[in-house]
């Protein structure tokens, strides 16, 4: 029997050790300077406004108003009353002159006029909620505005960045080797 050669190999093993570097960053706050000036508003009032109150219709409703308006109101109504009376007189005359009527209409007319009395006149003006008229005229305001301003000054600083290196070590943990073992030879035999 022939012996066999035994070959055995071990690989090389490299080892690495290391640590990451570190950044050290320092920053400073920016400096901000703000200057502002307020706006100036100047308002000039040129006096009070004008308030006009017209109470003519209110006075007409309360006490008849001025004498001229009072009598004009009465006289203007008498025109219509006179026209109505003319129509009534013509109707009475036609009734009295009508021969077809057998009875005397004069007593009926006398009682009717007695019961009716004086004509109804509108002595006062109508009482309405909007009788008093108000009118306000404001004066013009003189407004002058001087705008304000804001000045902002910002001073920034560059960051201070420092990098601290660490280390990297590498070494042979195991060297490569090949081991050859020859077969055992029997010399005695």
Write a concise synopsis of the structure shown.
The chain starts with 5 loop residues before the first strand and ends in an 8-residue tail after the last strand. It is 26% helix and 37% strand.
Give an overview of the whole structure.
The protein is 26% helix and 37% strand. It is α+β, with helices and mostly antiparallel strands and 189 residues long. The strands form six sheets. Strands 1-12 form a two-stranded antiparallel sheet. It has three helices and twelve strands, in the order ββββββαααββββββ. The radius of gyration is 63 Å and the shape is elongated. The protein has a domain at 63-131. It has helices spanning 56-63, 67-97, 106-116; strands at residues 6-10, 13-18, 22-26, 31-37, 40-45, 50-54, 133-137, 141-146, 149-155, 160-164, 168-174, 177-181. The model has no long low-confidence stretch (mean pLDDT 87).
Please give a handful of descriptors for the protein shown:
single chain; DUF6470; alpha+beta; two-stranded antiparallel sheet; elongated; about 190 residues; two-stranded antiparallel ribbon; about 25% helix
């Amino acid at each position: 029997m022939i012996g066999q050669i035994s070959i055995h190999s071990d690989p090389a093993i490299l080892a690495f050790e290391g640590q990451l570097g570190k950044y050290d960053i320092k920053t400073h706050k920016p400096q901000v300077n703000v200057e502002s000036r307020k706006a100036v508003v100047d308002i000039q009032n040129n006096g009070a406004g004008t308030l006009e109150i017209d109470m003519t219709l209110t006075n007409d409703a309360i006490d008849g108003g001025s004498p001229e308006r009072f009598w004009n109101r009465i006289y203007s109504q008498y025109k219509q009353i006179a026209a109505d009376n003319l129509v009534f007189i013509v109707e009475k005359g036609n009734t009295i002159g009508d021969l077809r009527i057998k009875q005397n209409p004069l007593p009926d007319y006398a009682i009717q006029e007695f019961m009716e009395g004086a004509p109804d006149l509108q002595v006062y003006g109508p009482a309405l909620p909007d009788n008093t008229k108000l009118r306000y005229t404001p004066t013009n305001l003189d407004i002058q505005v001087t705008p304000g301003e804001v000045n902002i000054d910002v001073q920034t600083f560059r960051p201070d960045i420092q990098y601290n290196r660490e280390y990297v070590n590498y070494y042979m943990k195991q060297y490569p080797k090949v081991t050859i073992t020859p077969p055992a030879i029997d010399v005695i035999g």
